[in-house]
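All the exercises in this workshop are built on plain-text protein records. A record pairs a protein's sequence with a compact description of its fold. Backbone structure tokens are a discrete shorthand for how the chain folds in space. Once this layout is familiar, the rest of the handout is easier to follow. As an example, a complete record with its sequence and its structure tokens follows.
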Amino acid sequence: MNYTNPLTIGPASPSPNPTGGANGTSATFNLGTVTNSNTNNAVAETITITYRAVVLNTAINQAGQLRNNSAVLSFTGGTLPAVSAPDITIIESQVGTTKTVSINGGPDSSSVNGDADDPVVFKITLTQAANSPDAFEVTVNDPIPGVVLTPMITSVVDSAGLLNLANFTLSGNTLQSVAPFDLISQTANRTITITVSGVLSQTVMPGQSFPNTATTRWSSLDGTPGQRSLHNVDAIERDGSGGVNDYISTGTATVNIFPTDPTKSIARSSEAHTADPNLAIGEIVRYRLRIRLPEGSTTNLQFKDNIPAGLQYINDGTAKFAFVTNMVAGESTLRH
């Protein structure tokens, strides 16, 4: 095959700043005038152009979507029908994060109740779906609430047997991975469970809630490939930094401090001929106000009884309070 002009194929001419869509961007290879002078029909004369394309980190590229790449040959006087390569399928790694908490050896749950000095156990579980593509540079971050004292990592269980206690650390109350790690594709679901234990502080107060969220991030490619095409700033890996970089999953567990849970009832009345809650004019009624105090510090505690119009409080010194506990003698105290 001879060419009337020297054939030079340099960089293609992609359109600048392409917009997202089914076509993405185009590359034109201009060969000029090509003359085929080979008269041997038994020998095929071909021109092969090999080039590369990068899957862009844009919102239109999501797991399971197909991308078709077609090409058209045109020349003076004619254009051939488009031909296509096999569709490519977008794949994305899936890493789930769940978190549970238990108190006093109770069942694991997303939300539990407790009070001061209770032992508390958090479990953070990462799950990689079966046959999910590799997840690279995985990191875990979990700020354990400050009311959990002396937290410690008690175990790390990896179904693949690759990660252990050495891969995670506690910096103050923050659980984190020592260094990013990779989750390589497995034929079965892979789980990594990190267990953190501690004790609830004496400073907790009734009705407080302490939600606690563990966050996992990862990336689509190994290492730091950077921008892989000069022609598009989106020619980069996908990670968990936010926006279209949605390789992030979270799990939340909440520790609730028992509320005061006040209840009010009629203890008795002064007259035998009436039946509570029916009272005669001038009859005296005795109320009982019960309030639960969880272990810990309750500041500025007040009992306020909103006596309705038509009733009058009798300040005769008979009002009294009692401290009732389910603990054995000497194990529970009330200070004011």
Summary: Residues 95-257 form a domain with the Immunoglobulin-like fold (CATH 2.60.40.740). Confidence is low (pLDDT under 50) at residues 1-11, 15-23.
